[in-house]
Amino acid sequence: MADISIPIAPILASSNARSRARALRRLILRDHAFRFITRAAAILVLALLGGVILSLAWGAWPAMRAFGFGFLVSEVWNPVTDEYGAAAPICGTLITAFLAVFIAVPIGLGIAIFLTELCPQKLRRPIGIAIELLAGIPSIVYGIWGLFVFAPFLQAYVQPALIRISAPVPLLSILFAGPPYGIGMLTAGIILAIMVLPFVTSISRDVFETVPAVLKESAYGIGCTTWEVVRNVVLPYTRVGVIGGVMLGLGRALGETMAVTFVIGNAHKISGSLLAPGTTISATIANEFTEAVSDLYTSSLVELGLILFVITFFVLVGARLMLLRLDRKAGA
Amino acid sequence: MSRYDARRRTDALARALCVAAAIFGLGWLALILIAVLLGGFGGLSLSIFTKMTSPPGANGGLLNAIVGSLIMTTLGVAIGAPIGMLAGTYMAEYGRYSKLTFFVRFINDILLSAPSIVVGLFVYQIMVARMGHFSALAGGVALAIIVIPVVVRTTEDMLLLVPGSLREAAAALGMPRASIIGQVAYRSARAGLVTGVLLAVARISGETAPLLFTALNNQFFTANVNAPMSSLPAVIFQFAQSPYREWHRLAWAGALLITVAVLTMSVAARVLSARAANK
Questions:
Q1: Mind telling me how many Å the CA of B125 is from chain A's nearest CA?
Q2: Burial code of A119-145, b = ≥16 C-beta within 10 A, e = fewer?
Q3: What does the pLDDT look like over A138-195, one tens digit per residue?
Q4: Region A259-277: what's the mean pLDDT?
Q5: HSE-up of A9 (CA within 13 Å, CB side)?
Q6: Which of A198, A187, A233 has the alpha carbon at shortest distance from A105?
Q7: Number of Cβ within a 10 Å radius of residue B129
Q8: Does any CB of chain B come closer than 8 Å to the CB of residue A90?
Q9: Residues 153-172 of A with CB under 8 A from B
Q10: Which of A9, A105, B57, B134 has the most CB atoms in a 10 Å sphere around its CB?
């Protein structure tokens, strides 16, 4: 028996070692493969951004060649003669977005201060959650509300009053001139403000919460009022983060499409009056892209998209850099 | 004394303004919700779920749009979620401190709030223009591009929450890295990962802009992903801008459906993540 088992043992051992080596190799291979796949996915995210910019630039090339830099300043938008200029949509985009931020920031900051400093502890979480949920409501819902409820309301009550009140005032009479259409820049700006309000609020709240309690307590300790604590401790400490949050909201407002498309009126002209219909880049693309018959028309719309992407890209990069700076401060 | 009074007055004024801002802001948001509920319930009926969109005058429903939305959302998540999870895995597990991770995180945060209409243009350029026709598949890809950043973000965050000692224990037993990730990290972060996918679904189920010129719209029922397909948001967009009363009714009902779906998913995501945090 013994002379049988002796020759078998080394064979067994070696086959065992071989199968172990094989199993180990398989595991290593699998590990490498998984690592490679995840890395590729991460790089794909980068490629996505590059791909978006490249493909838009590629699609916009015919329009760039045809109009050059004149595209940015020309107000002409005429599909019949195949001439296009981006001035009106760019203007509309900037005006509505800044209007939105202008309205939403004070209110959003107010709510954030209320939530972090004044609100009873019990109500903080529910209100905070409610605001975050509202940030998730899709823009088309805001759009349909704007078109059927808000614009008629503005037309019937608010805009006539605005026109009447501002008529004798020199500057305001230009800003609020013309018949009350209901739809227009002002309506779009207000709806955008309602949409970015939750973003501004939740970011400012998060940022306010990074203020160390010791700082606030010591300010209270020397007899500061709540407002003085907010004004002299909380706001200076979080300035960078708040600016970052505001820019993030601005980025949202710039790129927002559906809600604006419903209420902007889609008129390719620049008007001094906020009550006049206008257009934004995203609204123009949404309304006209599928109807664009000539190649140059399509290409011009793609160039509009490229312009929008570049503008929002820089705003968002600015926002992120600001928020990163605050993170570093909080980490230190 | 008067100076003290002035300070107190300023304080009271500022407090009052903050409270007013809260009431004002929340009031608007509540108004919108109420309007959607009222408008939507007025238009809600069984035929919404059983009939196709119809020409004005006929009594129609939203069946093809609902099915289209479901198909494209599924496509978007099926394509986008795995890519997002893998990228997030790399960032949290393999390359936690690498330059690439830092860079990807920065770009990803920008993609997270990039204008969705630009995504539509991009997919139009690379798919619709190449293939020569609109298709639900292109719509799904456009939605996937919106899903990816959401899932990347939550996957990375959730995997970073998994305690390192768990991974070390697994490594000490001789587990290879891939198995540690698959059987330890994923498993302990499961609720968080599901939350991320839910958030992504909530995000895309109301997206309209990227679908307008990728999936276009379709008056008829189709399950063919290589053909134009109808979706709830696209139908709302078309119907709300029409002059017909019945179409308006359907648009409101559609808006209600989307709102309820999105809110339900966000709440579910929140409950899940709260449960994961308690564990």
A1: 7
A2: beeeeeeebbeebbbbbbbbbbbbbbb
A3: 889 999 999 999 999 988 888 888 888 888 887 787 788 878 888 889 999 999 999 9
A4: 86
A5: 6
A6: A198
A7: 14
A8: no
A9: none
A10: B134
